[in-house]
Amino acid sequence: MTAPPATTDAQIGRTVQQLREHLGITQSRLAEDMVAHGHAWHQQTVVKTEKGLRPLRLTEACDLATVLHVELDRLTGAGQMRPELLAVRGHLLRCEEAERTAEVARAAAAAARSSLRAAVKGTPEIPGDLKSRVDAVLTDP
């Protein structure tokens, strides 16, 4: 029985790059996501990893798989990486990111309306054109 071929750091790096590119994530963004998981990564860390110049620690590999939305064994190139599934993962990631951005925007808008209400209460006379804009913002959340 022959042993399976060894997975090299270069092979893993190519796979990481493929996954990152299919998801539409920049090297800087990948580094930021890894930092969010507790790793001291920078854009250059991603470059070195993708070129196979820097081996991954197991904890990094586990978190990298999470960030790239794949199973850990996919980083080694094991199994088939179906392009259509990578595309779905990329679209899903962008949708989830857009939802988070929209939630932050909704919270900011609610806070702005609240401060606008307070400002309006303390203002005795508001000109008609400004009042109509204020009313529109406060009645259309």
UniProtKB/TrEMBL annotation:
What the entry lists under InterPro entries is as follows:
Cro/C1-type_HTH, Lambda_DNA-bd_dom_sf
PROSITE patterns noted in UniProt = HTH_CROC1
Q: Which stretches are transmembrane?
A: none
Entry-linked CDD domains: HTH_XRE
> What Pfam families does this protein map onto?
HTH_3
Annotated HTH cro/C1-type domain ranges read 16-75
Q: Which Gene3D superfamilies match?
A: lambda repressor-like DNA-binding domains
Listed name of the protein: HTH cro/C1-type domain-containing protein
Question: Source organism lineage?
Answer: Bacteria, Bacillati, Actinomycetota, Actinomycetes, Micrococcales
